[in-house]
Write a structure and sequence with these properties.
The protein has one domain. It has a seven-stranded mixed beta sheet with strand order 4-5-6-7-8-3-11, with helices on both faces. It is built from eight helices and eleven strands. It starts with a strand and ends with a strand. It is an alpha+beta fold.
Length: 284
């Protein structure tokens, strides 16, 4: 999504069409396009525009254990783990509690708080920003927020006609952990971990905050307001840094975050020799 630098009052944010992209299991844009909204803006205010840069805004990556989305493979996992269907609830609950203990233990080791949120509507990013500002956190974990939210998850249901128990993947709710970081490379970002099968992971990065960290390291001056740049010392250098975001080796970055936030992943994956498969859930 482009960032237009102009000598004007702030204009409404215009979303451009999303692009589909693929690279080593994750996606990346292959072309730069501004969308009609920005073209219309430039046509009317071109004399006041000092520059345009194009790069990521929101970037959300999804980590999935794909075998767990097929009940037959989920049943095989339980067989390999020596778990009967009638004991699935107790097995999953114990595993969920260990995932929770690991998340809270990570927060304690970092000296950061864990907060339970009673409503998923509460802005976790606002809370994270407040915590980071109050505690002057520039790098590292800001805190962990726990919240019960909707998800796809497993239930054991009885089949009356067949007189047997079956695994069903259905909509439900479970506890999720939100790990908010001031990441040394990405800036403010978070990891969302589902604490029940199929243990989905989301990694959310803000491309503008990421670019701000790149500009800091490169010694390029800028002024950033909210989620936009209103002045850049070197427009060409800033665009080159935004383009460099396309060349990140995501498997390395994502594995490091997974190891910190979800240390039980290896144990959960072991029975079927799985590994997390990463894809783009949303990009702008």
């Amino acid at each position: 999504m482009p960032n237009v630098l102009a000598r004007l009052a702030p204009q409404p944010k215009v979303k451009e069409p999303r692009t589909q992209w693929y690279h080593r299991g994750v996606k990346k844009p292959t072309t730069t396009h501004y969308g009609r909204g920005v073209e219309h803006f430039l046509a009317h205010h071109g004399a006041d525009v000092t520059g345009v840069i194009s790069g990521f805004d929101r970037l959300r990556l999804r980590g999935s254990l794909r075998y767990f989305y097929q009940p037959t493979f989920m049943f095989r996992h339980l067989c390999e783990a020596g778990v009967l269907l009638k004991n699935f609830g107790a097995y999953a609950t114990a595993l969920s509690e260990r995932v929770r203990d690991a998340a809270h233990g990570f927060a304690r080791r970092c000296g950061r708080p864990v907060r339970y949120l009673y409503s998923s509507a509460k802005s976790k990013e606002s809370l994270a920003r407040q915590l980071a500002e109050r505690n002057r956190i520039r790098d590292g974990l800001i805190g962990v927020f726990d919240c019960v939210e909707p998800c796809l998850t497993y239930f054991v249901r009885g089949d009356r006609q067949a007189h047997r128990l079956e695994l069903k993947l259905e909509s439900g709710k479970c506890l999720h952990h939100y790990f908010y970081f001031q990441h040394p490379e990405f800036g403010l970002m978070h990891v969302r971990l589902q604490t029940w099968f199929p243990f989905q992971v989301m990694v959310c990065v803000n491309g503008r905050l990421w670019l701000g960290r790149q500009l800091d390291r490169a010694g390029v001056g800028y002024v950033q307001r909210d989620n936009s740049f209103v002045w850049l010392e070197n427009l060409r250098r800033a665009q080159a840094l935004a383009q460099a975001q396309l060349r990140v080796h995501w498997p390395t970055k994502l594995q490091a975050l997974l190891t910190e936030c979800h240390p039980l992943a290896r144990e959960i994956c072991q029975p079927l020799a799985q590994s997390y498969y990463w894809s783009i859930d949303q990009s702008e």
